[in-house]
Amino acid sequence: MNKEAATAKSGRGAKRARVLETAAKTLNRFGVSYASLPNVAEQLGISRAALYYYFDDQEDLVFQSYQRSCEILAHNLDQAACAEGGAMAVIECFVDGILGPDAPEIASLSDMAYLGEERRGIILARLGAIKDTLAGILEDGAREGTLRPCASGIIAACILGLVSWPPVARFWRSSETLTHHDMIDAIKSLLREGIAADRTRPVDFRPIDIEPPKLAVDHIFDSAAMTAAKQESLLAAASWLFNLKGVDATSLDEVAMRLGVTKKVIYHNLGDKETLVAECYRRSFRFYADVARNVITYDGTRIAAFIASTHAFATANLREDIAPLAPLSGVEALPDNVTEEINTTSAWLMDTFIELYEQGQREGSIRQLNARAILAIQPGSFEWLPKWYDALSDEERARAPRELAELQQLGLLAI
Fold it and tell me: For residue 211, what pLDDT is reported?
């Protein structure tokens, strides 16, 4: 290849990279439905026709964005593997590489079901290989005695969830005062040492009761109670499918079919799809607030209360009768009134948990740390669970909540 041709090829590569960077940011902020070729072209200030040079259609844009995310993850993991200092140094180098100030933004892989079967299989295989490599690093660290033994497959997926979370978390008002550096430090701090002031002291916690309320027999003829029960069933089914497949890849027909009703029932009880998604988000934040109130009144040390909350959040994400909708992407596409409501609840949750952290620090059960940053990245440690649901064995699903609770308490370093 002559110099002129090489320069032209390099220029095309740089343009494609800029397009995919914009697409990743659009996917994270607004979701798949907004990441259309016209919208991405408008943000780039180019014509839609120009984008067809790089992509066949919207699905191809999403596919290439997800491929790019996998390439970035794999490349950084390969680079991190050369780090000196053992397994923990490799993991921290991987986090720095993915989230560094000059690193390209990766698209949250939250809507893989939007892709056709072949393309989805390619992304899942690449992501699975990255997870397996990370699991191998964790196992090597345990054998060397530098890391504590853990369920490597679960924690490897958790690490991927954590590094994918900051691009989404920045849209929450409760994270506005944090810098990107704060978020990176919080992830590495959590993975190293957890939140316990004394990592050698066992913490026994009592799981929080998250069982959904049952409709009492004497209420079956109460029309308001019956309507509320129907709405709860519809929202739980929709949230479960949205979590597994993504909002844009899930139709109202699929939600209706899951419950054995018609689409008319959804319209009658809740409304159109936009309303359904908004109500699913409202429901999920009501659940988070209920858990927070349980933590406030929890009978035990503050670290036990926090570990119990992580256990509850992880358990809920694996149960289709609870399934709080995971805010992995597309939050900015919600109606303004819903975003405002969610941000208000999110700010209350942040303030509540910060106060509880400070109580734990005063009682000596929680170490000194940047509580706001730790809390801002914490959802990344469990919101990934529905996306990996089919890849987890029954044993891993049963084990995941306690593994993630232990990670919050202890981190990964050997004790």
Answer: 87
